[in-house]
Amino acid sequence: MAKKEFSEKLPPKGKDDFAQNDFGGLFGDFSSKVSGLSSKLFGLIKIILAVLILPFVYSSAVSFFNEFSQIGAGLQKIFWNGVVTFLLIYLFIWEPVVIYNKGHKLLEVVFSFFKPMINVAPFLLPIYTILFFVIYGVLSLGICAGWLLEYTLFLIGFSTILHLTFSAKTIRAKKGDFLKANYIFGFSFIFILNVALLAFGLSLIFNEYSFVNFCNISFNIARNIFYAVFKQLFVF
């Protein structure tokens, strides 16, 4: 006996089906517009915060250089040699992104107990710079030699600019960044935090470098900038 052939056909759509599909599309479009508007609004808020944080970017840099000038000129040169060495390698020879990614993985292991920090810490914390400070602190307990400090300063300069460069590049490459809000705000915050950590570490090595003075000068410069802007805008 031959098998009967059959084909499954969808039943004709009724009014309820059309209404459901039409209103579903309507609400879908509305929700997408709302989410797009909220993301743009959040982007504007971050732009405003970025503008407010920019004076601290300037003040932290000026304060760092002011305190760093208290260290011997020869040691300053070694630090800047580390910075320049990285830039020359990065621009003309090789982009050491592998080293940066290894640092990411190391921080993921360190903060594995606290998952929210896994996505944030690799951008915020210069892991190699911190390690070099810690290694110097341990080795200096048994080794009192000038070469140890010189190599440490060179590596600190190299690792600091490495972290800032690739953090900026990673944030800038992200899509959907409305008016570059994530880049401006995110990198400004990273820069301030990295300079502060660098200042704190140097204050532990050098008696001439004062972390308290760094903080005070940074705050005073930023406050003067805000006061000058406020005076220009609202005081006649």
Give the secondary structure arrangement, pairings included.
Layout: H1 15-68, H2 73-93, H3 97-110, H4 115-118, H5 121-124, H6 127-139, H7 146-172, H8 181-205, H9 211-234
Helix pairs in contact: 1-8, 1-9, 2-7, 6-7, 6-8, 7-8
What is the CA-based Rg, rounded?
A: 27 Å
The main pleated sheet reads as: none
What's the end-to-end separation, in Å?
A: 101 Å
User: How many E-type strands?
Assistant: 0
What number of domains?
1
Please report the number of helical segments: 9
- What's the shape? globular
How would you state the average pLDDT, rounded?
A: 82
* Model regions low in confidence, pLDDT < 50 over at least 5 residues: 1-11, 13-28
Structural class: mainly alpha
Instruction: Bin the helical content.
Output: over 70%
Beta-strand fraction estimate: under 5%
Secondary-structure element order, N to C = HHHHHHHHH
Provide structural commentary.
Helix content is 79%, strand content 0%. The chain has helices at residues 15-68, 73-93, 97-110, 115-118, 121-124, 127-139, 146-172, 181-205, 211-234. Helix 1 packs across helix 9 and helix 6 runs parallel beside helix 8 (181-205). Mean pLDDT is 82; it is low at 1-11 and 13-28.
What would a concise description of this structure say?
This protein is an all-alpha fold.
List keywords for this structure.
236 residues; disordered N terminus
